[in-house]
Specification:
Elements: E1 8-13, H1 25-33, E2 36-39, H2 47-52, E3 58-59, H3 65-73, E4 86-89, H4 98-108, E5 115-120, H5 129-141, H6 147-151, H7 158-174, H8 177-198, H9 208-221, H10 224-227, H11 235-249, H12 266-280, H13 298-314, H14 319-337
Parallel strand pairs: 1-4, 1-5, 2-3, 2-4
């Protein structure tokens, strides 16, 4: 293994999350000044853009990572004087094993291998990993993907969406940061899964881009104090403006209760109805009697819980979260009675 004095190898890394050709300026400078540009993948999406810019790229035969590493470090000694470094145009998959093999050669043949520099060709923007999730979901739903994923429908996934949402709520209420991160991912998966299924609808298809575009437009419309010329002094005024704009959007609704999903858990459903009524100031709606009857029936139990929801709303208490907290305390008390530790 011999190399010309001052030989240099530049590993130009790229990402599939950035459009081909959108490389950083130092990356273009390295490519234009290179004595030799090599790539290990004829399907590298950057090849067309780099060649169109007048840079010649040699595609080396595919091989193992150690073989490629030896090829790259055994640079020719007959390059013209002043020739630039050899540049390896990285593949979108990161050329698995190549950097480890190069590091091993650098140790085993210290002083013989060229100087090696890793140069990022492009950088991911915030949110770029969402593109990976789009790609993964497409692979799972496409022919040759996962049979189970391919069979799912909006209806079949409902139970998973509900379960994941409640698991996320539990992680938030228990302050479990590690689980919070995991459950956020599970809920995000449900959004992407449903959006991928929606792309296949024969007459009314939409994609994750449509979903994201709609919510972006909604957020900008309902935040005129941020994206427009409106003003809001505090959170209360922001919320009032939000409800006004929302009401204008839903002007075709007959009742203030239209749009409240009846599929909510019963206590959360009652709390949402109370919130709508209180906010709208509907007159003539009496509060449920807040008293424990001598004999509890299904009707009186329901009335009592509705009264609790009303009083909780007026006191600024999330009645659903309060009941879950009380239930967890009850669970721990039962475990203590059983001689067990509180559940983590």
């Amino acid at each position: 293994m011999t190399n010309s004095p001052g030989a240099k190898l530049i590993l130009l890394t790229t990402t599939h999350r950035v459009a081909p050709g959108l490389l950083a300026w130092p990356a273009w400078e390295a490519l234009r000044s290179a004595g030799r540009v090599l790539a290990g993948d004829a399907g590298n999406p950057q090849l067309a853009a780099v060649r169109q810019a007048g840079v010649e790229v040699e595609v080396v035969p595919p091989g193992s990572a150690p073989a490629l590493a030896r090829l790259l470090t055994d640079l020719p000694t007959d390059l013209p004087a002043g020739a630039g470094p050899t540049v390896w145009l990285g593949s979108p998959d990161g050329d698995p094993g190549l950097t480890d093999a190069l590091a091993r050669l650098a140790v085993e043949h210290a002083g013989e291998v060229p100087e090696i520099e890793v140069l990022p060709g492009s950088y991911d923007l915030p949110g770029a990993r969402l593109l990976d999730l789009v790609s993964v979901m497409d692979r799972l739903r496409s022919p040759g993907g996962c049979p189970w994923d391919a069979e799912q429908t909006h209806a079949s996934l409902v139970k998973y969406l509900v379960e994941e949402a409640f698991e996320l709520v539990e992680a938030i209420e228990e302050g479990d940061r590690e689980t919070l991160r995991e459950e956020l991912g599970d809920v995000l998966l449900q959004v992407f899964f449903h959006s991928r299924i929606a792309e296949e609808h024969p007459t009314d298809a939409f994609s994750i881009d449509d979903v994201a575009g709609d919510i972006v437009e909604k957020l900008m419309y309902r935040h005129p104090h941020v994206f427009g010329d409106a003003e809001a002094e505090g959170a209360a005024e922001v919320e009032a403006n939000w409800e006004t704009l929302k009401a204008a959007e839903k002007s075709d609704r007959e009742s203030v209760l239209d749009g409240v999903p009846a599929g909510l858990p019963s206590l959360a459903y009652a709390a949402k109805l109370v919130s709508r009524v209180r906010r709208a100031g509907v007159a003539g709606v009496p509060d449920a009697p807040y008293e424990l009857p001598a004999e509890l029936t299904a009707e009186s139990a329901g009335t009592l819980m509705l009264a609790v929801a009303q009083r909780a709303h007026d006191a600024g208490v999330d009645v659903d979260a309060a009941l879950r907290a009380a239930a967890r305390g009850y669970r721990d008390a039962v475990r203590a009675a059983e001689g067990l530790k509180p559940k983590d």
